Amino acid sequence: MFEEGSDNAAMAAAPDAFSPPPVLWRDERDARHYQFWTRVYAYALYAALGSAVLGLMPPWLLVPVVPLVYFRMALALHELLHARPSSQLPRFHQLTMIFESPMCLGYREHRAIHFAHHRFASTDRDPERYQIEGGPLRAFGAALISPECGFVRWVREHGMSRSLAVDAGIRCAAFIALVAVNPRVFFVYWVALRLSVGCSSFVFHHVLHNDDGRLGTFRLPAPDVVVRMARALFGAEPMLILTEHERHHQWPRVRAGDLPLLPAPPR
Ligand SMILES: [Zn+2]
Ligand SMILES: [Zn+2]
What we know:
The protein is mainly α. The chain has one domain (7-11, 23-261). The protein contains 13 helices and 2 strands. The protein has a two-stranded antiparallel sheet. Helix 3 packs across helix 10, helix 7 (136-144) crosses helix 10 (183-209) and helix 11 (224-234) crosses helix 12. The longest helix is centred in the C-terminal third of the chain and has 27 residues, at 183-209. It is globular and about 55 Å long. The protein binds zinc ion (2 copies).
């Protein structure tokens, strides 16, 4: 059966002469902070979908609301993945249920995949390589179907454990129930969510790890004005995971907010 990896698995990056002081590492306080905010963002998605189903807000409002909440949640969830294993989280977080697909993975699997991405970034053993390689269009297509691809690839490699079968069954049942309650409204929510998942996964993988066909880990190739706009929409601190992605890969234990304090990573 798959065993949840320790944080050290992700830290096995290239040997590095510089070692950031432990005061810069994520701690209990950071873990509590991201645990709280990921829950708030998930509740915000539920509230938006529920309000549209109940007729309290027009369904089209889901189109701007879902990406705004999802991108913030994805960045906070990424920090939480580095700060706390699934076994130390409430059931709510373990399920990681935002209804992106009738078959999708939970926190434990996402964490293991992300740690393997850190360990083998952009190589043949990187489980996210299928979203990194190739041209932008191919990679964007792969990012759009990443919930299903991630699920199928995980089951092929690790099999279907009892706990994954139970959790995936709960997520699937919730998905089907929501489709049944109001197919039209759920469709609007689902399209907005899947585009958000696709864009986020495309930036996280292809944009940051493929420089015109050369695979590696690179700085965010976005003009300052775009970064400033993204900071205004999604928050300054979460955006550091993107703008400082090279430093994040080199020193994954360091909290996002402290990455700019570190020296430039070796090239
Ligand atoms: Zn990366
Ligand atoms: Zn990471």
